[in-house]
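WARN retry 2 of 3 for item q-0093 after timeout on previous attempt; input resubmitted unchanged.
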Amino acid sequence: MTGKEITVRATGGGTFKAYVAEPDQTPAPGILVLQEIFGVNHVMRALVDGFAASGYIAACPDLFWRQEPGIQITDRTEAEWARAFELYKGFDEAKGIEDAKATLRVLRTRKSCTARIGAVGYCLGGKLAYLMATRSDVDASVGYYGVGIENALAEATAIAKPLLLHIAGADQFVPPAAQEQVTAALAGNPLVTLHTYQGRDHAFARVGGQHYHQAAAELANRRTADFFAQHLR
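OK item q-0093 returned
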């Protein structure tokens, strides 16, 4: 099982890359992996490889290609954090969702894919996973500590497939008031499952990150695995 880059044609013109890995046995369901603000770096590629090892065709599109293709930075230096926030501020969310949907269509056309596909996103990608639940026909979505979901709650009525959100209770980028807005708007929706990890900061599931918490990460990842097994297999 070796990951590789494929080319995806964007809606409206242009192309971008997506990192893809397939399991040993196909056909298999797919998972669209939506990046953090550091690009399709080693963390995201490891996630793709991990989902493939678990029996899914996984793909992570380069959503920053319109600003700078091939971004792969880390969370280890101030300069990289500054660049990551520049990319985040310059990111066109609507076009990013279109690029995610274009990648979703490519996955669905692969002979090795069963056409049942989920989306999972982290940080920036956590919000995008929520928006995929409201704006696409993805079969199930999972968001880890999504930033800014409270600004898109008007779209919640469009959720038609299962959605799971992992909320970091002490998220420095999602204050308590924002968390309360999200919970109040979504808790009553039978298609939505919310899990809050009290005391955990943003990116608690990023292996090697400053706020990585093994027990919380393992619990969240186990819940994600069970959720995808239920809805994609």
